[in-house]
Inverse folding.
C-alpha cells in the first residue's frame, strides 16, 4: 500500500491524500481546494495529481472548503465513485459547494475583464452549479462509530473530531496481501495459458489501520461536542495548524469579545467587523453573543450576520441541535433558539448588505470570508478600514498570504483591497481562542489519549505551515510518538 500527499503538505489548505492499496483500490482522503491567494491558486487547484476517472471513492473528513471544495471539479473530470461522510457534512456540503461555485463565477468574471484589457487568455470557473448538483448524488452518509465496508478488504469508521458540525476522524482498516511477485504481461499468451505457474505468491494477510484526523477540534468548544477518542492505528495522518501555539481560555474569550464590543460600539460608537467562516465559526460567535444577550450584558446595538451561506448553515445547525454539546442543551431548556435574539438580524439580500455601509449607527457585522479573501466582509472592510472608530476582529486562522493575515502586520499602514491602496486606521484585534482547531497541547493530549504512541508505526504531519509542523513534530516526539515525518507535496510513501 502507498499514500501520496497531494495537498495540505507544508501548508494549511488543499487537503488531499491518495491511498492506493496492493489490491488495486484507490481512496482519496479529502478533496480540498487551495485557498488564501486569490486567483493565484487557480493553477494549483486544476493540477490534481491524479486521474479522477480512476478514483474508486473519496472519504471526506468535513465540509470546510479546504477539505471538500474540489469535489465538483473531480466530478466534472469524470469521477463517479462514492463520497463517504457524516450526515451533517453532506448537508453542509450541499450549501458550501454551491456558494463556492457562485464565488468562483464572480472571481472569474472579474479576472477575465482584467485579462481582456491586457489581451491575455481568459479562464473558466473550476465548476458551476450543474457539477455541484451532480456530485451531491454521489454522497453516502455514515453516522459516527458505525463501521461500513468500502470494499471486501476495507472498513471505514468515523469518529467525532469536534472541529465543526459533522467533522470526523477517518479510521480505515485495510487487509491486504504483501510480497507480491511482479506479474508478466497479460498480453503474453504463454503466460495466460500458464497463469497459475506465475501467480503471485502471497504472504500472510496483513491488516493495516490508518487514522486521518482531518482537523482536530478543541476539548471545550462553546457549541460542539468534545473530540472523541478514536481507535488504535498503525499509521497516523494528523493536522498541525496550531502546532506551535496555545489558545486562551474559553471564559477569557467571552470576556474579551464583550470588551471589544463595548470599546468599539459604546465608547468609540463605531462598527465592529468580524470576518468569520460562515460554517462553524459564525454560529459559535452568535451563540456567545446570544448568551451575553440573555444575561443582559450585551449592549443594545444591532448585530448583523451578513451572509446568505451563514443563514443557510445556521438552519442546518438547528437541524442537528442534538449533536451539539451539553451547554447548548442547557440553553435550549429556556431559549428555543440559541442562534437568535431580538437585536440580531440575518441578511441575505445584497441591497440590504450594501445599505450597512451607508449607516453610521454602532453595530456588529459578522460576514464571510474568515480570511478576508472574498465575500461581503471584504467590501465592509474596504469601506471602513480607514475609519479609526472601526474595529476589525480576527477570530480564526489566516494563511500568511491572505488579506486577513496581512492587515495584522503592525508595520503595515496601507493595504491594497480591490486594487486600491487604503490606509489602515481601524483597530485590528485577534481572539484566537474562537478557533475550531486545537492548539498543540490540546492536539497532543487528544492523540496520546486516543492511541498508544508506541504502537503507531509512522506519523505524518500535514495541514500546517512549516514552522508549526516542525514545532508539533517535537511536541509529538516528547509525547512518545516515533517515526515522525513532514511530507512534501506529491511525496509518495510505502506503508
Amino acid at each position: 500500500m502507498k499514500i501520496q500527499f497531494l495537498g495540505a503538505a507544508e501548508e494549511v489548505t488543499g487537503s488531499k491524500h491518495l491511498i492506493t492499496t496492493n489490491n488495486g483500490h484507490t481512496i482519496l482522503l479529502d478533496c480540498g481546494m487551495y485557498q488564501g491567494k486569490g486567483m493565484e491558486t487557480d493553477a494549483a487547484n486544476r493540477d490534481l495529481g491524479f486521474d479522477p476517472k480512476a478514483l474508486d471513492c473519496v472519504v471526506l473528513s468535513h465540509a470546510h472548503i479546504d477539505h471538500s471544495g474540489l469535489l465538483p471539479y473531480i466530478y466534472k473530470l469524470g469521477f463517479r465513485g462514492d463520497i463517504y461522510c457524516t450526515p451533517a457534512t453532506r448537508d453542509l456540503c450541499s450549501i458550501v459547494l454551491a456558494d463556492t461555485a457562485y464565488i468562483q463565477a464572480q472571481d472569474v468574471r472579474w479576472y477575465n475583464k482584467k485579462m481582456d484589457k491586457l489581451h491575455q487568455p481568459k479562464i473558466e470557473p473550476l465548476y458551476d452549479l450543474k457539477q455541484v448538483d451532480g456530485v451531491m448524488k454521489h454522497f453516502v452518509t455514515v453516522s459516527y462509530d458505525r463501521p461500513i465496508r468500502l470494499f471486501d478488504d476495507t472498513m471505514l469508521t468515523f469518529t467525532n473530531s469536534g472541529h465543526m458540525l459533522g467533522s470526523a476522524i477517518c479510521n480505515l482498516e485495510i487487509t491486504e496481501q504483501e510480497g507480491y511477485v511482479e506479474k508478466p504481461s497479460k498480453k503474453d499468451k504463454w503466460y495466460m495459458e500458464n497463469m497459475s505457474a506465475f501467480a503471485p505468491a502471497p504472504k500472510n494477510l496483513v491488516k493495516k489501520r490508518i487514522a486521518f484526523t482531518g482537523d482536530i477540534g478543541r476539548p471545550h468548544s462553546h457549541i460542539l461536542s468534545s473530540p472523541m477518542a478514536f481507535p488504535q492505528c498503525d499509521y497516523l495522518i494528523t493536522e498541525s495548524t496550531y502546532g506551535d501555539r496555545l489558545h486562551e481560555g474559553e471564559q477569557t474569550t467571552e470576556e474579551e469579545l464583550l470588551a471589544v464590543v463595548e470599546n468599539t460600539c459604546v465608547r468609540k460608537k463605531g462598527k465592529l467587523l468580524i470576518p468569520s467562516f460562515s460554517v462553524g465559526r459564525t454560529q459559535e460567535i452568535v451563540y456567545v453573543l446570544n448568551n451575553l444577550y440573555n444575561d443582559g450584558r450585551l449592549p443594545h446595538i444591532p448585530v448583523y450576520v451578513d451572509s446568505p451561506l451563514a443563514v443557510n448553515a445556521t438552519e442546518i445547525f438547528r437541524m442537528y441541535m442534538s449533536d451539539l454539546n451539553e451547554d447548548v442543551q442547557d440553553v435550549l431548556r429556556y431559549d428555543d433558539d440559541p442562534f437568535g435574539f431580538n437585536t440580531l438580524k440575518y441578511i441575505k439580500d445584497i441591497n440590504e448588505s450594501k445599505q450597512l455601509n451607508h449607516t453610521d449607527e454602532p453595530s456588529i457585522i459578522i460576514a464571510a470570508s474568515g480570511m478576508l479573501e472574498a465575500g461581503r466582509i471584504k467590501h465592509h472592510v474596504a469601506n471602513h478600514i480607514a475609519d479609526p472608530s472601526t474595529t476589525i476582529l480576527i477570530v480564526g486562522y489566516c494563511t500568511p498570504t491572505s488579506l486577513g493575515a496581512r492587515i495584522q502586520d503592525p508595520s503595515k499602514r496601507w493595504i491594497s483591497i480591490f486594487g486600491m491602496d487604503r490606509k489602515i486606521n481601524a483597530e485590528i484585534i485577534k481572539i484566537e481562542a474562537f478557533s475550531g482547531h486545537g492548539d498543540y497541547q490540546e492536539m497532543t493530549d487528544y492523540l496520546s489519549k486516543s492511541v498508544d504512541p508506541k504502537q503507531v508505526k509512522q506519523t505524518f504531519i500535514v495541514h500546517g505551515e512549516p514552522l508549526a509542523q516542525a514545532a508539533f513534530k517535537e511536541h509529538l516526539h516528547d509525547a512518545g510518538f516515533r517515526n515522525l515525518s513532514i511530507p512534501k507535496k506529491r511525496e509518495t510513501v510505502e506503508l
